[in-house]
Amino acid sequence: MNGRGEALARAEARDWREPWIARRATLTPDAPALVFGDQRLDYRELASRAEAAAAALARCGVSRGDIVAVYLPSGLPMVELAHASFLLDFTVQLVNTRLTAHEIDFQLRDSGAAFWLHLERDAPAAAVELPEGINRLCIADDSTAASVRGEELAHDSAPATFATQIDFDSPRFILYTSGTSGRPKGVALDAGHLFASATAQAELLGAEASDRWLVCLPLFHVGGLSILLRSVLAGSCVVVHERFEPATVAGDLEGESITGVSLVANMLGRLLEVMDGAPAPAPLDCVLLGGGATPEPLIEAARAARFPIAATYGLTEAASQVATRPPSDDPARGLPLLRATEVRIVDEEGKELPAGRAGEICLRGPTIAHGYWRNPEATAAAFRDGWFHTGDVGSLDADGRLDVFDRRSDLIISGGENVYPAEIEAVLLAHPNVAEAGVAGIEDATFGARPAAWVVARHAPVATPGQLDAFCRERLAAYKCPVEFHIVDALPRNATGKLLRRELAARDA
Asked: pTM of the entire structure?
């Protein structure tokens, strides 16, 4: 266990039935809880702010079981709302703030959200045309969610009644993952999933009240959310950044005595660049590194600067981490699994493979989501016989450690963002002059990979690359838009007609 995190690793769910922020404020009210810019809060103050946010939401009509779609940057209002959801017992749908109106519209309709919540000053969010039945809530003061208002719903009813116990089995957060079939899928994580993940991570990596984690991953991603919640359970402090700025991160690593930070490869590269050979500050004892494969030269440069790298493999469906190598572990070995996470490797027919054989990674355990939100077809396809079939390729060694070779055969990891070719292809195929479309990743020195598209025209006049680019940008987040468009006569397919995406980039190499 690395000698750290014993208290949290031994924590029992029954001891945390009370809303987590309320219990933590009772246990250690004066302990530092959160730093955001020049604001510093202890747990008593953070709990008070969460209660004020919950009361304001209740006045706007939010009640138990409602889904509130939240479109917010990382900051105090987002943190307050996350904790308020436990107090008022509503579900938070976390919306990626990089999405287009087209993508947001799909997610709102798909989730069944009752409310759309955003900063009042946020013009893109305010411009979203809401489906019928969804009510708009605006946060007037960027510094607190307690300023939320929905004037058409406000009422002077009795004060909000906060939950005294949380339901570990009801959905707490819904996060959408890009879809392999062209449509994103909602993953509902309940308190049970999040608690199991936090305690398992504490056992493997350690978690102490003295820890100070820097959160520069977005809080609408499971990586950022998981840090926020496990810090409350441990009673430690989080330093939240609205976005990743390498110079600001470098300054806070030293100035805030940071002990842990979670990054993806291109973040690590940019951080090392601004630090210009300076060693990692002494308090830093864990750099959680995920988001896909990391170039070996970058790992070597980080280790030369004494950055304590902890390579990790995780998924939204697993409430974050699945397997993680502690910084002190042998980097030549596979990743040790989190406690209570079961992994097996299967072949194409679903038959379990022996140690050392590569196949599909399948997961089971208390951190794994029950399925995809309101999507029985996708659930049936991926959650079979009690196991979640990730589509990722890996192997287990004789000691049960995991090696990950590929994250979903066609997945593009671009700057830590998951980009699925099928989603982009579905958009391109909606263009009237596109008969066929294929998307694959091409290498990129900054982002690791970027999507590129190969298109077969339907009829003349053939759409130009510029027209296709504009079409995509209206319907996709910028990081999903292809950086290259190739007009071709045919796409590579196998005997059954399946598109061979891996041959797309190779033909132009």
From this structure: 0.89
